[in-house]
Design brief:
The structure is a homodimer. Chain A is of the alpha+beta class. Chain A has two domains: about 1-150, Nucleoside Triphosphate Pyrophosphohydrolase, CATH 3.90.79.10; about 165-240, Winged helix-like DNA-binding domain superfamily/Winged helix DNA-binding domain (Arc Repressor Mutant, subunit A), CATH 1.10.10. The first copy, chain A, has seven helices and eight strands, in the order E-E-H-H-E-H-E-E-E-H-H-H-E-E-H. In chain A, strands 1, 2, 3, 4, 5 and 6 form a six-stranded mixed β-sheet that branches. Chain A has a two-stranded antiparallel sheet with strand order 7-8. In chain A, strand 1 (about 1-15) and strand 2 (about 20-25) form a beta hairpin. In chain A, about 30% of the residues are buried. The interface of A and B includes residues 97, 98, 102, 245 and 247 of A. Chain A binds a DNA duplex through helix 6.
Chain lengths: ~250, ~250
DNA sequence: CCAAAAGTGTTAGACCTACACCCATGA
DNA sequence: TCATGGGTGTAGGTCTAACACTTTTGG
């Protein structure tokens, strides 16, 4: 059975073409059936879609999420949704806020527990999903029309990410396994929405000890090839616990 | 109508006798009736209590909270609960996490949106409440037996507060309007659970500009009277937005 | 050889840390 | 006059901010 007063939404951030992007979908009950485990859940989901035509409209996009089945753990289920929708495992996922204004969704009383996820979009062809009509990346400042209060949720996620990135080394999750310092800097510039000084940025980031020199270099670039770095999981754990000051 | 799958809990922190305390209650449906607005809500609440005898036991204490009525905004209602339970207005209150493991409460499927509040317990006689059998302060490391997973929620609130206090000037909410620097330092020492250097602490805190010298002094103390300070709301707002580094 | 981005060092000022003694008050 | 906690300064090291040119690569 599905808790009809409760849904989970994931704001999935990706760093693509030097821009911060959000992954949105157009859901469809027929396809969601592959994900739901009982016929009853499917019927309930269909009803919810019927009550809100916007959910099925081609004009609107929505955050990736579903209602919560009664027997599922909240955090575990959020992870499950994310894995099924993207095909990725071990994604950085964090619950950040529960939205509960009484009028946020027309004709229904639904609270939404919102999560944000950070992924590197380059590896996988996310646009093919077995449980949605469409899944697509949108630049954070060029969002399409979205259903209900999804825009407010995205906004809130972005503000949370900005805070988070100042004190914890989470930004790295948005990069491929090997990355250049320029990519890392651009990422921070995009998230914090301000220019950083290259020399100071490099000094600061290197001093943290979080970077491992992979001894590799870029290839096939029409300019001096940059060194590639990875990040050190041990030091990452440590910095995550201790905190970190990245208020550049 | 009450959403029976959804409750709100408040972890109310207070700073008392140089210790961090949490306010807990023993609820009782008969008294809660004063707070609920319809007979239906009262009946539903009574049922919930009947299902879980621990809720009404004299052996157990619980976080201050109730189920959420369908027509109420989540954040607004949390504030309302807090105001009614404590008699205080304008309390610092922040939603910090939603607990949703499927087995966290026996025989029922309830998600709890948890808030933490910071108050200065000195002003008011909180132990008299019109909506509970008992309300009482407990030192954070001498908690009584608590119902369900309240201890985990308190733990999580404490961890959140510790993080928060490092980067935002929230600690001040726990103090009376006028306070001494030693009180402020002790507060930080208690929250962060470490000793701080007095001279450095004072320099740092004064440099932030957050303190206003009230020109008043302690009276009736058997030692040199300390200056009393207040905190500057304008600078507080500013520091709250910009962030702050208090990783002493 | 040109265009494009990578990579690098210094200096001045601010901030942080560690540390020990005198002061004001009431009992 | 004593016990108690209030209040203060300095020096050495570290971090930060501001700033411009040379290097490497592929086309």
């Amino acid at each position: 059975m599905i808790l009809k007063n409760l849904s989970i939404d994931c704001v999935i951030f990706g760093f693509k073409d030097n821009k911060l992007n959000v992954l949105l979908w157009q859901a469809e009950p027929a396809l969601l059936e592959n994900f739901l485990t009982t016929e009853e859940e499917y019927q309930q989901t269909k009803e919810i879609f019927e009550k809100n035509p916007a959910l099925a409209s081609d004009q609107y996009w929505g955050l990736i999420g579903t209602h919560l089945p009664i027997e599922e753990d909240l955090d575990v289920y959020a992870k499950k949704i994310l894995e099924v929708a993207t095909g990725l495992k071990n994604i950085y996922l964090k619950q950040f806020k529960t939205f509960g204004d009484s009028k946020r969704i027309p004709h229904m009383r639904v609270l939404t527990v919102a999560y944000y996820a950070l992924i590197n979009p380059e590896y996988h062809d996310l646009e093919l999903s077995s449980i949605a009509k469409a899944v697509k990346w949108f630049e954070i400042d060029k969002l399409p029309k979205v259903i209900f209060d999804s825009e407010a949720i995205i906004d809130s996620a972005l503000r949370t990410l900005r805070e988070e990135v100042k004190y914890h080394p989470v930004g790295f999750h948005l990069l491929p396994e090997n990355f250049t310092l320029t990519e890392l800097q651009t990422l921070y510039e995009v998230i914090l929405d301000k220019k950083l000084d290259t020399r100071n940025f490099r000094k600061k980031i290197q001093k943290m000890g979080l970077l491992v020199d992979t001894q590799k270099k870029q290839t096939n670039v029409a300019h001096r090839a940059a060194k590639l770095y990875a990040f050190d999981m041990k030091i990452y754990q440590q910095l995550t616990e201790e905190g970190l000051n990245f208020s550049i």
